[in-house]
Amino acid sequence: MKNIFKGSPDESLGFLFSRVYTLRQKRMNDELASIGINYVQYNLLTGLYWLQLHGNTINQMMLIDYTKLDKSVVSNILHKMVKEEYIVREESVSDTRAKIVTLTPKGEKLVEQANQIVSKIDETFWGNIPQKSICQYLCEVVKINS
């Protein structure tokens, strides 16, 4: 078989990024399972938490835009979170097609627990790489691709 790649997999940004994401997601899922959620649920809960910090009414589309997650995935997960009483999802008064999403006190407590777990993972996962450098790089990638 002919090698169609330039260099080794360790020289491919796409492959390396995929490996890093997969390793981190696996560790997150393993640890977050102790409180009954997975990494995607964590992202939605913390995304909603961050958006609500500013006192705004958050609808489902705003949460989708903020988290960059798939619309149907978000809808399914939010439906489950309503059953678990982590969030409340209601029709908007001004637009009946829009769903207003709000964290419940139980959901806020879960975000706090999850954040402690994720913070501990991040302390070890990234090793000695300065967090500010990682954040600057990843923010630039998001900005370029949004």
Give a topology summary.
Elements: H1 13-32, H2 39-52, H3 60-67, H4 71-83, E1 87-91, E2 99-103, H5 105-125, H6 131-145
Antiparallel strand pairs: 1-2
Helix pairs in contact: 1-5, 2-3, 2-5
Structure description:
The chain has 146 residues and is mainly alpha-helical. The chain has a single domain (13-145), classed as Winged helix-like DNA-binding domain superfamily/Winged helix DNA-binding domain (Arc Repressor Mutant, subunit A, Orthogonal Bundle). Helix content is 62%, strand content 7%. Strands 1-2 form a two-stranded antiparallel ribbon. Helix 1 (13-32) packs across helix 5 (105-125), helix 2 (39-52) crosses helix 3 and helix 2 crosses helix 5 (105-125). The longest helix is centred in the last third of the chain and has 21 residues, at 105-125. The model has no long low-confidence stretch (mean pLDDT 90).
Concise synopsis of the structure shown:
This protein is mainly α. The protein has helices at residues 13-32, 39-52, 60-67, 71-83, 105-125, 131-145; strands at residues 87-91, 99-103.
